[in-house]
């Protein structure tokens, strides 16, 4: 009898321990589930990094290389991966790049477009796929496609500013414009700004010559203009690669000192030409800073923050008196907070 009672007590003790373990595990399990749910809710409310962003760029040289490098720099700071494709300034490769990124299910796409129409085409594809699109340095053609944000220069104002700078420093002059690619939204807007301003300021626009942003073409076209006997006093190169061709064309004819040469870009080549006295002035803006703003526009959108529909990159005019007084092109980590502040206030001091 005693043995039976002893075994019964032992059994009851074991059952008690098992029950205690089950209840404890249930409580711990519930607590773990609650903590996991809370963590998931917090992550959904404030996502941090981990995004996969596509970037369709024109080329990987000059302006576009600086822009892409800056985007990679800030992406690393924000724990984000950039997947990049180059269109080589062709609509076909641009469209293929957009479609490839949609197939890869990127979180967002940043596009430097070939034209306003192809940007609209890209917008429609992204809208249908539910992928946000930010365009940079591109105009958006008419159509149902929409974008999150457009980060660019005030192209019209760049034309106005070019005319005002010319009239202030070289009044009453005859001006030759060596431009990029005609028919693209940005160039057309800049020329409209120039045309709306130049005549009223007493400037005479003698010719507009497209160079497609190619140094060799700018050189040969400058030589053609000189040989034609066209009279001009001032020549604008719309981009430092264009201006370099203009300078070389004038030098080849031994007439560089006879003309005033101005440039839109203010990049390293322009700065070197200012320092050497071969360039008289330049409107400076930074592709690197542009890249930071493009990334932040997309990142802020993906994290639920308000993003301006249009963000303009800052510009300033520099001369031989202060050749390095413009906006630098090469970005490092110190420029990230400056870009963040610019997104808030529209002011940048660098």
Q: What do the pLDDT scores average to?
A: 88
Helical percentage: 40-55%
What are the secondary-structure elements, in order, as H or E?
Answer: HEHEHEHEEHEHEHEHEHEHEEH
Distance between the termini: 95 Å
Strand segment count: 12
**Shape category:** globular
The share of residues in extended strands comes to 15-25%
Q: Which fold name fills CATH's third level, the topology of the largest domain?
A: Rossmann fold
Kindly name the structural category.
alpha/beta
Which terms summarize this structure?
350 residues, alpha/beta, Rossmann fold, 2 domains, six-stranded parallel β-sheet, six-stranded mixed β-sheet, 51% helix, 17% strand, disordered N terminus
Give a brief outline of the structure.
51% of the residues lie in helices and 17% in strands.
Task: Present the secondary structure layout.
Elements: H1 2-45, E1 52-57, H2 62-77, E2 81-86, H3 91-103, E3 108-111, H4 116-129, E4 133-136, E5 149-152, H5 155-169, E6 174-179, H6 185-198, E7 204-210, H7 215-228, E8 234-237, H8 240-252, E9 260-265, H9 268-275, E10 281-284, H10 287-302, E11 310-312, E12 316-319, H11 336-345
Parallel strand pairs: 1-2, 1-3, 3-4, 4-5, 5-11, 6-7, 6-8, 8-9, 9-10
Antiparallel strand pairs: 10-12
Structure, described:
The protein is α/β, with parallel strands linked by helices and 350 residues long. The protein has two domains: 147 residues, 3-Layer(aba) Sandwich (Rossmann fold); 130 residues, Rossmann fold. It contains eleven helices and twelve strands. It is globular. The N terminus is likely disordered.
């Amino acid at each position: 009898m005693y043995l039976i009672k002893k075994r019964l007590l032992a059994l009851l003790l074991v059952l008690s321990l098992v029950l205690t373990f089950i209840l404890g595990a249930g409580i711990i399990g519930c607590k773990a589930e609650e903590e996991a749910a809370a963590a998931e809710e917090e992550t959904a409310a404030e996502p941090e990094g981990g995004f996969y962003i596509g970037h369709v760029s024109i080329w990987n040289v000059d302006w576009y290389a600086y822009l892409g490098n800056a985007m990679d720099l800030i992406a690393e700071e924000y724990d984000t991966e950039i997947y990049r494709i180059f269109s080589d300034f062709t609509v076909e490769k641009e469209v293929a790049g957009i479609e490839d990124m949609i197939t890869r299910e990127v979180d967002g796409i940043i596009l430097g477009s070939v034209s306003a129409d192809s940007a609209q085409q890209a917008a429609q594809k992204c809208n249908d796929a539910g992928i946000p699109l930010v365009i940079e340095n591109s105009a958006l053609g008419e159509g149902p496609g929409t974008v999150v944000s457009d980060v660019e220069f005030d192209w019209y104002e760049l034309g106005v500013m070019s005319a005002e700078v010319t009239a202030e420093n070289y009044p009453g002059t005859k001006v030759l414009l060596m431009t990029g690619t005609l028919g693209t939204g940005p160039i057309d807007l800049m020329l409209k700004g120039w045309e709306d301003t130049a005549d009223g300021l007493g400037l005479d626009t003698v010719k507009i010559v497209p160079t497609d942003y190619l140094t060799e073409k700018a050189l040969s076209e400058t030589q053609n203009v000189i040989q034609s006997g066209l009279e001009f006093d001032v020549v604008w190169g719309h981009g430092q690669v264009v201006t370099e061709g203009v300078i070389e064309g004038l030098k080849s004819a031994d007439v560089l000192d006879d003309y005033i040469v101005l440039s839109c870009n203010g990049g390293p080549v322009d700065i070197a030409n200012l320092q050497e006295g071969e360039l008289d002035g330049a409107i400076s803006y930074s592709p690197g800073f542009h890249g930071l703003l493009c990334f932040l526009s997309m990142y802020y959108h993906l994290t639920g923050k308000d993003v301006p529909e249009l963000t303009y990159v800052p510009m300033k005019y520099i001369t031989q008196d202060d050749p390095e007084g413009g906006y630098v092109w090469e970005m490092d980590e110190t420029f990230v907070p400056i870009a963040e502040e610019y997104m808030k206030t529209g002011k940048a001091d660098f």
